[in-house]
Design brief:
The complex is a heterodimer of chains A (about 575) and B (about 375). By secondary structure, chain A is of the alpha/beta class. Chain A contains 22 helices and 22 strands. Among the domains of chain A are: about 105-175, no CATH class; about 265-305, no CATH class; about 310-570, Rossmann fold (3-Layer(aba) Sandwich). In chain A, the strands form 5 sheets. A 6-stranded mixed sheet of chain A has the order 6-7-8-3-9-10, sandwiched between helices. Chain A has a 6-stranded mixed sheet with strand order 18-19-20-15-21-22, with helices on both faces. A 4-stranded antiparallel sheet of chain A has the order 2-1-4-5. In chain A, helix 4 (about 115-125) crosses helix 5 (about 130-140) and helix 16 (about 430-440) runs parallel beside helix 18. Chain B has 15 helices and 2 strands. Classes of the chains: A alpha/beta (about 575), B mainly alpha (about 375).
């Protein structure tokens, strides 16, 4: 044992409305030199608070109320919590550094990337003037950024998400810290970029001999990089062990749930396991463990090949509900004083496919591949440049005015971000009722209210939520409300645009299950868009892999996964964290 | 960046044209006959025979260009008989009131483009001269008050945001709120009664902007400012305090928002000092709302303040405008209106340019 950082009985509290809530409740664990510890848990479990407590970056109304954080160095240990502000600053960015979740907002938009990295070097006296620049360029090379000179003079908005995260990493490792804290560094990124960043972190850790605290809500990601795993649940550590231990013999029901709720790739399940399959939470915060093993749950839910076959036969014998023919959506690139069009961004470039009644068609690809634009073009939120969209043999592209409005009742959309797709000044009930009023579904307010409450209960909320506002709900609940809002007018066709990518993996499983149940109850056809191939595989009968606006590959979900034809699909599959 | 600025300036030109059109429409629709107003003002009250009077009228009408068509084109029926009676014929002509008003005719008027806004009904003097005489002090007070308001409010805002809910924040918030709710005329009067009162404190002179007997001969510009200084202190305070409170509040809120952002957390995680975080990383980002407000403050330059100018007897634009309104002196009012429009457009142009200069993201957007 050669500890680098020891956390002893750490408690961090947040005060709101006169009540204190313990975000982190008396936790203790250690990180050894050169070791990577994975910290896993759902949002609100206290992962980030732990990281920020170590850096002493908890800001009011939060406060570290008790505990010790010992930083070992040259045989001496310093309690970070006792250091004066001036001293702790010598640790931050120097001996311990942090990479954050959102590369898009974590860099100052008004300074060039180079300035920001060089600043970290200068503030700790590692380099100055021209030397700071040359060293920053070296760091950019080290984090495998192409064209370091260009990156140095670029502003954050000119870079992609992956590039920004590399700049953040360059900044974090600039002073050769002995501890690197990575707080969900890949959650906002595509799978292929996630893989590249994980590879980079692993390599840097090896080269620099850093200890690392890697935080994620996804056990799959953590297993790719960590040596040891600490499982956090409601601010407490519920389990700790090596990656192998955790994956083969999870003891705590919560860990079991976390392990099980990621959609499996080798088999198709009817319903995804969730945390509640393993434990029952009570209102006072305690829980009862349910005596079930993981295998037990999974084995009863496997969809057999015969079942898949009969289902496919039933679906694909019908004539298509939606036909997309040679669809193109181009965005003009403008330049110069008068905004002359100098070219086009081909977001959707000559795409053709059919969707059959009752089917779920998966659309998978990285950000910028045109999958969202395709979805938006189908319901005419974006104008198509060319091509046909036939819905029950009516060309949607030619519809305008009242007929289009009528058609919209049949085609609904579920958006990615449950934070911004609900009006904060509208109650949950009003949000669900609004499309009913717009499409004149139920004549009286009483009927609409009754229907909305029925929907709320159906999606696992209660009547009491009817008069609440979005900010009073959790993210998962909000996404359920968005789903209810779309389903409430009984559309025949629903386009789900990344409905679970803003959610934790445990909440993701619940929402996916809900979508599947609703699909059976309400009998709608669905296009399911996601960047996560494992999610798409679980949800869909057939999938389309998109890349650069074109269809790379199309086929039955199971077959595309087992037998990918294009190199791009192989790359996508390869990048999925498999878990150990 | 350069193309953005060029585009922004190109948009500026049609804006000015629209402003001039609106001013012109208001001008020609203002109540009363300018000819009659001119004759009344110029008349001596003697009896003048009717034909002579008519001749005088025609002369003034011609001098004012009122005998010209209103705008660049006329629409008339094409002919007198048959179908052509119902067909429109559009004729363009160069000699019209709008063109003359804009560019002048070279004889009687130079056009507003050269600063000729016509003649005041009241004083029979050129409007431009009246404005030139009066605008100096208004400009001076507005500019100094903008300067002081910004230079004081930014540090106050930063300091109260940095120590949120701390001692300084609470005290400054309370004081600023009290200041903000005090009516201007009351503050002005109170200042006069306290600091320019022989019975209490007689530090500053009670009225005017310069000594009663004028400046000593051969005193230079700076010498004159020095002499005027005691006269200027109290009005400047009155001009400044309300925008000062507003701007401090704006700065505080914007700073608070920035301090809660992710990149400030990054800066802290880097190990930067609070001072550097505030003054380097947060300041630049939090200036945007304050830059936007600048566009609104700018046009106030020509307006001045009637209240302050009346109380302190300052010969500024505020008083001039007030008098013009009471005497229905439309040429003066239209001039002020047009210049205010121009200054608003200029204010927006300047704040857009500052935006583009501070924010690298702007020049790249469409």
């Amino acid at each position: 044992m050669n500890p680098l950082l020891e956390i002893k009985n750490l408690t961090t509290e947040f005060e709101s409305d006169g009540a204190t809530k313990k975000a982190v409740d008396n936790i203790s664990f250690a990180i050894n030199k050169g070791e990577t510890v994975g910290l896993v848990g759902e949002s609100g479990s206290g992962k980030s608070v732990t990281a920020l407590s170590i850096m002493r970056l908890i800001s009011s109304p939060g406060k570290i109320s008790s505990g010790e954080i010992l930083f070992h160095e040259d045989g001496k240990a310093a309690n970070l919590l006792k250091l004066p502000d001036g001293e702790i600053r010598k640790y931050r960015g120097n001996k311990m550094a942090m990479v954050f979740q959102e590369p898009a907002t974590s860099l100052n938009p008004l300074f060039t990337c180079g300035e920001q990295v060089a600043e970290a070097l200068k503030v700790h006296g590692k380099a100055s003037g021209a030397k700071a620049k040359s060293q920053s360029l070296l760091l950019f090379t080290k984090v495998q950024l192409q064209n370091p000179e260009l990156i140095y003079d670029s502003y954050p908005h000119q870079l992609s998400g992956g590039q920004k995260q590399r700049v953040m990493i360059a900044m974090a490792i600039s002073c050769n810290p002995s501890l690197l804290i990575a707080d969900e560094p890949t959650t906002a990124l595509d799978v292929t970029i996630q893989k590249a960043i994980l590879d980079l972190l692993r390599q840097l850790k090896q080269e620099n001999g850093m200890g690392m605290l890697f935080i994620s809500h996804d056990l799959g990601v953590i297993s790719e990089i960590a040596d040891r795993i600490v499982v956090l649940y409601k601010g407490k550590i519920v389990e700790e062990g090596t990656v192998n231990d955790i994956f083969t013999h999870p003891k705590h029901p919560y860990t079991k749930g976390l392990l099980a709720c990621r959609p499996p790739l080798d088999k198709k399940l009817r319903v995804l396991p969730t945390i509640s399959d393993f434990m029952q939470e009570k209102s006072d915060g305690s829980f009862i463990e349910l005596p079930r093993s993981l295998d037990e749950i999974i084995n009863t839910r496997i969809v057999t090949r015969e079942e898949i076959f009969t289902r496919n036969k039933k679906i694909y014998d019908q004539s298509p509900l939606l036909q997309v023919k040679n669809l193109k959506t181009y965005f003009p690139l403008r330049k110069g004083i008068f905004g002359n069009t100098i070219g086009y961004t081909k977001a959707v470039d000559d795409v053709s496919f059919d969707v059959y009644p009752g089917e779920t068609l998966g659309l998978v690809g990285e950000s910028g591949c045109g999958k969202t634009t395709l979805g938006r073009t189908i319901i005419k939120l974006t104008k198509a440049t060319a091509g046909q969209i036939l819905f029950k043999d009516t060309d949607l592209a030619s519809l305008t005015g009242e007929p289009l409005r009528k058609m919209r009742k049949n085609i609904q959309f579920i958006f990615q971000d449950p934070y911004s797709s609900l009006n904060p000044r509208m109650t949950i009930g009003d949000a669900i009722i609004e499309p009913m009023i717009a499409h004149k579904i139920y004549p009286t307010q009483q009927e609409r209210r009754a229907k909305a409450i029925e929907l709320l209960v159906r999606i696992g909320l209660t009547e009491g939520h009817y008069d609440q506002y979005p900010h009073q709900l959790s993210v998962g609940q909000r996404q359920r409300v968005c789903i209810a809002r779309s389903i409430g007018i009984q559309p025949e066709f629903v386009i789900c645009d990344e409905p679970v990518s803003a959610l934790d993996i445990s909440v993701q499983a619940q929402v996916l299950n809900l979508l599947n149940e609703l699909k059976n109850d309400y009998n709608f056809t669905c296009i399911f868009i996601s960047h996560d191939l494992s999610v798409v595989k679980f949800m869909s009968d057939r999938m389309i892999v998109m890349n650069k606006g074109k269809i790379e590959e199309m086929g039955l979900s199971g077959e595309v996964y087992i037998n990918p034809k294009s190199a791009y699909t192989k790359k996508l599959i390869d990048a999925i964290p498999k878990g150990k | 960046m350069r193309s953005y600025l060029l585009r922004r300036i190109l948009v500026f030109i049609p804006t000015l044209l629209v402003i001039s059109l609106i001013s012109f429409v208001i001008l020609i629709n203002s109540p009363g006959d300018p000819v009659e107003r001119m004759m009344q003002a110029g008349g001596t009250g003697e009896f003048i025979p009717a034909p002579l009077l008519e001749k005088q009228r025609a002369e003034i009408r011609h001098r004012l260009g009122l005998d010209l068509p209103v705008f660049y084109f006329n629409i008339q029926s094409a002919g007198n008989d048959g179908i052509s009676k119902y067909l429109p014929s559009v004729s363009f002509n160069y000699h019209n009131q709008f063109h003359r008003w804009l560019f002048g005719d070279g004889i009687n008027t130079l056009g507003i483009i050269r600063g000729d806004f016509g003649t005041s009904y009241q004083t029979q003097q050129p409007v431009s001269k009246l404005i030139a005489d009066r605008i100096g002090w208004s400009l001076f007070f507005t500019l100094t008050s903008i300067f002081f308001a910004y230079i004081i409010s930014i540090p106050i805002g930063i300091k109260s945001a940095a120590g949120r809910n701390g001692r300084f924040d609470r005290i400054s918030s309370t004081v600023l709120f009290i200041l903000y709710s005090l009516p201007l005329f009351w503050v002005a009067t109170l200042l006069l009664m306290t600091f320019a009162n022989p019975d209490v404190l007689y530090i500053f002179p009670a009225s005017g902007v310069k000594p009663v007997f004028g400046y000593p001969e051969e005193s230079g510009f700076f010498r004159r400012i020095l002499i005027s200084l005691p006269h200027l202190v109290l009005p400047t305070i009155c001009y400044t305090y309300s925008s000062l409170t507003f701007l401090s509040r704006l700065m505080r809120n914007s700073m608070l928002e920035i301090l809660g952002s992710d990149y400030i957390r990054t800066a802290r995680a880097k190990g930067l000092s609070e001072k550097r975080i505030l003054w380097v990383h947060a300041l630049k980002n939090s200036l945007f709302p304050i830059i936007t407000v600048f566009a609104h403050v700018f046009p106030a330059m020509i307006g001045g303040s009637v209240i302050i100018e009346s109380i302190f007897s300052i010969p500024g634009m505020g008083n001039a405008i007030y008098q013009s309104i009471t005497t229905q002196d439309y040429p003066v009012l239209i001039a002020v209106f047009s210049i205010t429009g121009l200054l608003t457009a200029v204010g927006y142009l300047i704040s857009d340019i500052i935006y583009a200069w501070v924010d690298p993201r702007i020049s790249f957007s469409k």
